[in-house]
């Protein structure tokens, strides 16, 4: 067992009941306090812990990590230390904040290294090098295939043989809390003979998780499904905002472009794959049998609850989706093995999103496109209004958490408010 995951450990820091961040989580992020430069941090309960200061005080001295790794705008250099070191840091934090620990000087700690989550700004944790978006939930692919093409042949012939993906846009990945302007673009209304230009009328979210690459490869090198976990540092919530009207007109023959590239929202805390280890589950049976480079052993899916809420500008919010990451047909190890099988090199900071995660039931569909079946069955909001897609002024909030044996490992949230087109 990974030491820091011990379910019995309790922290001397208070952790509110139902918190996503017990001492077993120890995620990593980048924060900025008043008049301070950005730094690497972790979180226990609602306490943000300045890891640059913990390092300055000598608590990581034996791990020999350069100061600059923690006084940093991004986690990339920290992840690049490799899992032996980052795992040791996580174990050490667990030890320092354990109720039974004798390693710390409480005054030193509380005066210099702890901040309340409300008094700091969380920043984009990763300098995202490249962003790949997969399409790995069978239910989602079937729903979209049925709507856009043919319900009888909803999955294209390649779908069960390889994890379909495309190259997304890294520059527009933003941190939770960043407002999103409704994109403008071309679309072709039904029965129109010519395209029109204007703000998207069908703005949607996509409920996804993304994994962050923490180890690079050389051009020409491949990563097997067995090696893949060594390359995956951790995960974040990922809202892959999508303008369905722009997407539908532009996507043939090369795939999505401006209908997706205007923004994607991620959560601020990178939860390590290590922290998720206790929540492994088997994936769905893959039939037909996959080619040998996509075969894998062990439990590579995770029982990770997901939800989406729409919060209107005024009035109560509504949960429109409850899904689970375990529904994924293709797991992350297969995605990474497929990504590199042609020799494409990986960089530390690459981000790979899962694709929209839909379950079998209507209440588990991961986009408004599916929930309302392209607007045919609108969602009614608590204030009596209806939503076919996302309105200006709406905030979309993604949440994710694993829970078992009294331990809850959560991701916090990825939220973004939609502003009118610029
Ligand atoms: Ca997507």
Say how many strands there are.
Answer: 26
Strand fraction equals 25-35%
N- and C-termini, Cα separation: 51 Å
Q: From the 3D coordinates, which CATH architecture of the largest domain would you assign?
A: Alpha-Beta Complex
Domain count: 2
Hetero groups bound? calcium ion
- Number of helical elements: 9
Features:
Fumarylacetoacetate hydrolase, domain 2; globular; 26 strands; binds calcium ion; SH3 type barrels; alpha+beta; 422 residues; 16% helix; single chain; five-stranded antiparallel sheet
Concise structural overview:
The protein is of the alpha+beta class. Helices cover 16% and strands 27% of the residues.
Can you walk me through this structure?
- The protein folds into two domains: 121 residues, SH3 type barrels (Roll), CATH 2.30.30; 289 residues, Fumarylacetoacetate hydrolase, domain 2.
- Strands 6, 7, 8, 13, 14, 16, 17 and 22 form an eight-stranded mixed β-sheet that branches. A five-stranded antiparallel β-sheet has the order 4-3-2-1-5.
- Helix content is 16%, strand content 27%.
- Strand 10 and strand 11 form a beta hairpin.
- The relative contact order is 0.17.
- The chain is globular, with a radius of gyration of 22 Å.
- The chain contains nine helices and 26 strands.
């Amino acid at each position: 067992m990974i030491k820091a995951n011990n379910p019995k450990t309790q922290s001397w820091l208070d952790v509110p009941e139902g918190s996503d961040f017990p001492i077993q989580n120890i995620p990593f992020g980048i924060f900025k306090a008043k008049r301070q430069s950005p730094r690497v941090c972790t979180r226990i309960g609602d306490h943000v812990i300045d890891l640059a200061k913990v390092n300055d005080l000598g608590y990581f001295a034996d791990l020999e990590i350069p100061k600059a790794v923690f006084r940093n705008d991004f986690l990339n250099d920290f992840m690049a230390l490799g899992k032996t070191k980052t795992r040791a840091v996580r174990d050490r934090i667990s030890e320092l904040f354990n109720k039974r620990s004798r390693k710390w000087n409480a005054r030193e700690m509380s005066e210099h290294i702890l901040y309340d989550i409300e008094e700091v700004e969380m920043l984009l944790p990763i300098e995202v090098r490249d962003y790949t978006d997969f399409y790995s939930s069978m239910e989602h692919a079937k729903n979209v295939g049925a709507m856009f093409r043919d319900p009888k042949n909803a999955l294209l012939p390649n779908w069960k043989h390889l994890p379909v993906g495309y190259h997304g846009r890294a520059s527009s990945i933003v941190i939770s809390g960043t407002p999103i302007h409704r994109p403008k673009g071309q679309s072709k209304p039904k029965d129109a003979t010519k395209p029109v230009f204007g703000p998207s009328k069908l703005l949607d979210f996509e409920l996804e998780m993304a994994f962050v690459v923490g180890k690079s490869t050389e051009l020409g090198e491949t990563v097997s499904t067995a090696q893949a976990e060594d390359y995956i540092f951790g995960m974040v919530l990922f809202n892959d905002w999508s303008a369905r009207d722009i997407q539908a007109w532009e996507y043939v023959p090369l795939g999505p472009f401006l209908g997706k590239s205007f923004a994607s929202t991620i959560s601020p805390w990178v939860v390590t794959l290590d922290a998720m280890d206790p929540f492994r589950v088997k994936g769905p049976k893959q039939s037909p049998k996959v080619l040998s480079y996509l075969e894998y052993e062990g439990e590579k899916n995770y029982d990770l609850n997901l939800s989406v809420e729409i919060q209107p500008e005024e009035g109560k919010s509504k949960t429109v989706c409850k899904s689970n990451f375990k529904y994924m047909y293709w797991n992350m190890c297969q995605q990474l093995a497929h990504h590199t099988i042609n020799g494409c090199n990986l960089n530390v900071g690459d981000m790979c999103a899962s694709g929209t995660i839909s379950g079998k039931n209507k209440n588990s569909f991961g986009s408004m496109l599916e929930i309302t079946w392209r607007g045919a069955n609108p969602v009614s909001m608590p204030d009596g209004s209806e939503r076919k897609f996302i309105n200006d002024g709406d905030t979309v909030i993604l949440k994710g958490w694993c829970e078992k044996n009294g331990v809850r490992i959560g991701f916090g949230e990825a939220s973004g408010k939609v502003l009118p087109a610029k």
